[in-house]
């Protein structure tokens, strides 16, 4: 990443250049706003470290100027000691963060690391936006590029042109029907026929036989006319039997016969009707256990699973979440005629970290709800539903570092409120790590020495003792 340091003190620029250059960043320097403009015109930076006190035009004035551009680089303001009010003003204008002088090298590196992670997320967001249409066209309805999804596509490629029965397995909401539709659409022989989907779990057991195989007039009370079932409707095409593990034993026997003979009989009839249908089934149940418990026929299971496709849950393919979220955001915007909003890095980070017990279906519903209720030009973490952010499926580390214990009363004193929040946040991390300073520093993304310095600054150094055996721990009853 390219970092532009704007400071009129040569020694300060040297220190920052050396600290950041060791991390592999491309560093540019400027001693004034005029020099900074020249550097930016030659090569735009990803991040600007901007001192407030500069000759001629001040850093705060330059920040105002930068924020007039939609593609302004992230800016971290460097303020003099005791200039917290100016820092608050800078953040209101649009600064990413601020660093009060004097600061430690590790504090500088941490701020830059976080800022550049935001830059990376923004770039990824833009790339996803640009490639979304192409990805959809190339990959059909299955959006994503994870290894798990690539394996699914590879199997689809192999089975699409055959008539082999396919069993799709995966948790609810993972997109099993999309996989079935993709197989149907890739089949040159079947795609001209109908794709008929049946949710076996949604139909009462007394109706599913009639739904699948049809019935003759008078077959049962209320059967006033003959009715063609789903198998006849799918003739020449594909029938998708979702949640097949919920099918009754009687219907399982008739389905097995249809598979083996390619013929069906309507309920209440004697005519054997030939059907040319490809059968794709899906389940979230472990059918092997259902067989052991006597709930599912073993012979039917073996006929259904000529080819098995496993669809991974969303939590195991998190790299697909950003592009899926972008796709659902675009669909929602078009469907409800909403203003276009991009996904902010804060929202993307929460979406990626969430465990998604409802998988892709839950992600789609979350994006739709958030966009309908959102305000502003971006969809941020604040726009995500409260039950999503506090739900039991949220990762443990995120969940346990939230809650009322971190709430800080507003006093209108930025420095005091920030200090109190830092005390509570760091205290919570230390409690979670059992008092181990090294482990807590890793959770916080800090170096151990920086955390020790912060503990002394906040008056917490005497309270915590690292677990025995940690040679880098702070000794009890010591501020050193």
Structure description:
The protein is α/β, with parallel strands linked by helices. Helix content is 47%, strand content 12%. It has 20 helices and 14 strands. The longest helix has 35 residues, at 105-139.
What is the topology, as strand order, of the major beta sheet?
Answer: 2-1-3-4-5
Which structural class matches the secondary elements? alpha/beta
Distance between the termini: 36 Å
Strand-residue fraction? 5-15%
CATH topology name of the largest domain: Rossmann fold
Q: Biggest sheet, open or closed, and with what strands and sense?
A: 5 strands, parallel
Number of domains: 4
- Based on the coordinates given, report the CATH architecture of the largest domain: 3-Layer(aba) Sandwich
CATH class of the largest domain, named: Alpha Beta
State the helical fraction. 40-55%
The number of E-state strands comes to: 14
- Rg for CA atoms: 30 Å
Count up the helices: 20
Shape: elongated
């Amino acid at each position: 990443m390219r970092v532009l340091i704007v400071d009129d003190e040569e020694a300060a620029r040297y220190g920052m250049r050396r600290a950041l250059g060791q991390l592999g960043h491309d560093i540019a320097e400027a001693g004034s706003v005029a020099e900074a403009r020249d550097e930016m015109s030659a090569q735009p930076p990803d991040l600007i470290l901007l001192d407030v006190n500069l000759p001629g035009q001040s850093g705060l004035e330059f920040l105002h100027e930068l924020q007039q551009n939609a593609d302004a680089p992230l800016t971290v303001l460097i303020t003099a000691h005791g200039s917290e009010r100016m820092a608050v003003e800078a953040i209101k204008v649009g600064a990413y963060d601020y660093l009060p002088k004097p600061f430690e090298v590790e504090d500088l590196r941490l701020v830059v690391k976080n800022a550049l992670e935001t830059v990376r997320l923004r770039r990824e967001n833009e790339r996803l936006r640009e490639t979304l249409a192409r990805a959809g066209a190339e990959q059909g309805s299955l959006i994503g590029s994870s290894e798990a999804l690539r394996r699914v596509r590879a199997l689809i490629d192999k089975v699409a042109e055959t008539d082999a029965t396919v069993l799709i397995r995966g948790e609810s909401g993972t997109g099993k029907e999309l996989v079935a539709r993709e197989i149907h659409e890739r089949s040159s022989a079947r795609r001209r026929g109908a794709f008929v989907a049946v949710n076996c779990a949604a139909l009462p057991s007394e109706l599913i036989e009639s739904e699948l195989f049809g019935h003759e007039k008078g077959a049962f009370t209320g059967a006033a006319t003959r009715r063609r079932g789903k198998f006849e409707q799918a003739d020449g095409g594909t029938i998708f039997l979702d949640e097949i593990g919920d099918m009754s034993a009687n219907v399982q026997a008739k389905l097995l016969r249809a598979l083996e003979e390619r013929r069906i009989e309507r309920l209440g009839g004697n005519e054997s009707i030939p059907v040319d249908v490809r059968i794709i089934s899906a389940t979230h149940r472990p059918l092997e256990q259902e067989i052991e418990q006597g709930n599912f026929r073993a012979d039917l299971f073996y006929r259904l699973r000529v080819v098995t496709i496993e669809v991974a849950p969303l939590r195991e393919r998190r790299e697909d979440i950003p592009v899926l979220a972008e796709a659902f955001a675009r669909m929602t915007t078009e469907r409800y005629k909403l203003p276009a909003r991009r996904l902010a890095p804060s929202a993307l980070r929460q979406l990626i970290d969430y465990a998604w017990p409802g998988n892709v279906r839950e992600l789609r519903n979350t994006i739709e709800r958030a966009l309908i209720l959102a305000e502003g030009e971006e969809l941020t973490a604040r726009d995500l539903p409260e039950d999503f952010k506090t739900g039991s499926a949220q990762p443990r580390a995120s969940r346990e570092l939230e809650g009322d214990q971190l709430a800080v009363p507003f006093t209108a004193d930025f420095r005091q409120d920030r200090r109190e929040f830092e005390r509570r946040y760091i205290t919570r991390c230390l409690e979670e790590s059992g008092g181990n300073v090294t482990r807590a520093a890793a959770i916080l993304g800090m170096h151990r020495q920086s955390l020790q310095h912060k503990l002394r600054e906040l008056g917490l150094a005497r309270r915590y003792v690292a677990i025995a055996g940690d040679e880098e721990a702070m000794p009890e009853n010591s501020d050193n």
